[in-house]
Specification:
Distance between the termini: 22 Å
Protein name: DNA repair protein RecN
Shape: elongated
CATH superfamily of the domain at 1-137 and 463-532: P-loop containing nucleotide triphosphate hydrolases
CATH topology of the domain at 1-137 and 463-532: Rossmann fold
Organism: Nonomuraea longispora
Structural class: alpha/beta
CATH architecture of the domain at 1-137 and 463-532: 3-Layer(aba) Sandwich
Function: May be involved in recombinational repair of damaged DNA.
GO molecular function, one term: ATP binding
CATH class of the domain at 1-137 and 463-532: Alpha Beta
Strand content: 15-25%
Largest sheet: 6 strands, antiparallel
Family: Belongs to the RecN family.
Length: about 575
């Protein structure tokens, strides 16, 4: 769905007290007597889309001017997504834009219910509206817009080579960045390689094993406390089994005492099953204690104080601790660092070979891009020739028979995303004049007609959904005025068109005719913009033709104009 402006409400702007414009999706004209405020309609639309705020335009006696626009956009479409990205809302495909300018010159803007910088409206306007008026910035005067519009005009013929160029350009850009990184950061990368190489050599020299640090820590503990460990094991063994060197003096060891307890219970176990169970458990305890005593004896026998081994363990731990402080939390971490460092070092040591490969690819891509850019230029030159001829023909019908529009293509030294071509629209006002940029080669009134001719030729190729023209018919009349109306109607087949005009020949082609009414005291009445029905259009066109709304001759001419426009659709 094509976005369009559905309604515009203007308050306190110029001579307008309050006016509401209900716009059709097609061709809309705004007419009215001199001083009624027609141009303020264009000014209001300009404000709505980020135009410069001039406090002198505020209606005398009003503290501010406000403009509110209701736009129909595709829910979830590009414009709606832009609005939602900044926190605004699009409800049921309806977008509200507001702008207020105070008498002190302060300006505020709202987009989708959210306060935004005025620049946001300007940014959004690029995808919504093109305003062509004598004092307005012309969208198609922007160089980037001109080349992009020419590409769309070139059509399918440009699609295939542009796609191939774009793919090659992206790879060329990536290869260029990689080469730049490899060459400009050579010193940093060499330093990184040296650091990694030193670390790997240090780790290789020590040759740590997974879990070795924990094992050494345990061994050092045992060796450092060998005497205490052996003494404890011997004491515990004696307590369990007794010391065979001691004189008999009664059972003091655990085994002897358990034996006495077991003997006492065994003597009477047959008299009570419960006590028999206790006797069995005492026997099991004796076996368990004997096993523990045996283990203690073996342990005490194995423990030896070995100062030489202790020194070796401590030295090894010290070396490992140095690695762990630098490269990991433990020996396993050190080994993991070494694995990663080896991989990274392999990459860094392959830089020279990689640079050679990338340099060869860069040269090949540069040659390919040069070839593809030349092909794009050839297609654009042909499109520019066709476009210039088409616009020039349109200008002849728009009462500018001696004017000629050309597209001048220049070459950038660098490759761009769409090639090396730079396009500029130029116009020669007469055969002896040199082609000049549009804003220098045409007067204000002529420029609007030039823009109309360009937009008609670009129709369908340039995706702006709404066009606004002011003074497009300045200085023309008769047959040329009819041709302007016919071309505006043709443009309205693919876009919404809003035109402020004083020519009945133009107004007759409109789908929606709005008139700005002026009150007797010279001000505009409330809701001073009225949509006309057929009878109202006849009266207004008669006024515009003859100055008299009820002139029979004027009404007949008005009906003729409306019939001509209807037949031309």
């Amino acid at each position: 769905m094509r976005p369009r402006v559905e309604e515009v409400r203007i308050q306190g702007l110029g001579v307008i007290d309050e006016a509401v414009l209900e716009l059709s999706p097609g061709f809309n004209v705004v007419t009215g007597e001199t001083g009624a405020g027609k141009t303020m309609v264009v000014t209001g639309l300009g404000l709505l889309f980020g135009g410069r705020a001039d406090p002198s335009r505020i209606r005398p006696g009003a503290d501010k001017a406000t403009v509110e626009g209701t736009l129909v956009v595709e829910q979830g479409g590009h414009v709606a997504q832009q609005v939602e990205d900044i926190g605004g809302e699009v409800e049921d495909g309806t977008l509200i834009i507001s702008r207020a300018v105070s008498a002190e010159g302060r300006s505020r803007a709202w987009l989708g219910g959210r306060t935004v910088p005025v620049g946001t409206l300007t940014y959004l306007a690029d995808d919504l509206v093109a305003v062509h008026g004598q004092m307005d910035q012309q969208r198609l005067l922007q160089a980037t817009r001109q080349r992009a519009a020419l590409d769309r005009y070139a059509g399918d013929e440009l699609v295939k080579p542009l796609r191939a160029y774009t793919q090659a350009y992206k790879r060329h850009k990536k290869v260029t960045a990689l080469l730049e990184e490899l060459t400009t950061r050579a010193r940093e990368r060499a330093q990184e390689a040296d650091m990694l190489r030193f670390g790997l050599e240090e780790i290789e020299k020590v040759d740590p094993k997974p879990g070795e640090d924990a094992e050494l820590r345990g061994e050092e503990e045992r060796l450092s406390h060998a005497d205490a460990l052996r003494s404890a094991a011997t004491t515990a063994h004696t307590a369990l089994l007794g010391d065979p060197m001691e004189a008999a003096g009664g059972p003091h060891d655990v085994i002897s005492l358990l034996g006495e307890a077991k003997s006492a219970v065994e003597a009477v176990r047959d008299f009570d099953a419960q006590l028999a169970g206790v006797a069995d458990r005492l026997a099991e305890a004796g076996y368990l204690i004997s096993d523990v005593a045996t283990d203690l004896a073996a342990y005490a026998e194995s423990i030896e104080a070995d100062p030489t081994r202790l020194a070796a363990v401590q030295e090894r731990r010290s070396v490992l601790s140095g690695l762990i402080r630098k490269y990991g939390e433990d020996s396993a971490g050190v080994l993991a660092w070494a694995q990663q460092a080896a991989g990274r070092l392999s990459e860094l040591e392959g830089d020279d070979e990689r640079i050679d490969e990338l340099t060869r690819e860069y040269d090949e891509l540069t040659a390919r891009l040069t070839e593809l850019a030349a092909e794009l230029t050839k297609v654009r030159e042909a499109a520019a020739e066709r476009f210039g001829q088409a616009v020039t023909e349109e200008l002849t019908a728009l009462a500018m028979p001696h004017a000629k529009v050309v597209v001048q293509l220049g070459q950038s030294e660098e490759f761009g995303p769409e090639g090396r071509d730079e396009a500029e629209l130029r116009m020669a006002a007469h055969p002896a004049a040199p082609p000049l940029p549009l804003n220098k080669g045409a007067s204000g009134g002529e420029l609007s007609r030039v823009m109309l001719a360009i937009e008609v030729v670009f129709a369908g190729a340039d995706p702006v959904p709404t066009f606004v023209f002011d003074e497009v018919d300045a200085g023309v009349g008769g047959k040329a005025a009819v041709e302007i109306g016919r071309r505006l109607a043709r443009l309205a087949r693919t876009a919404q068109v809003i035109v402020v005009t004083h020519l009945p020949q133009v107004a007759a082609f409109a789908d929606q005719h709005l008139v700005v009414e002026k009150a007797g005291d010279g001000s505009v009445v409330r809701s001073g913009v009225v949509a006309l029905d057929h009878e109202g259009r006849v009266r207004e066109l008669s006024r515009m033709l003859a100055g008299l709304e009820d002139s029979e001759l004027g009404r007949a001419h008005a009906e003729e104009l409306l019939g001509l426009a209807a037949a031309d659709r």
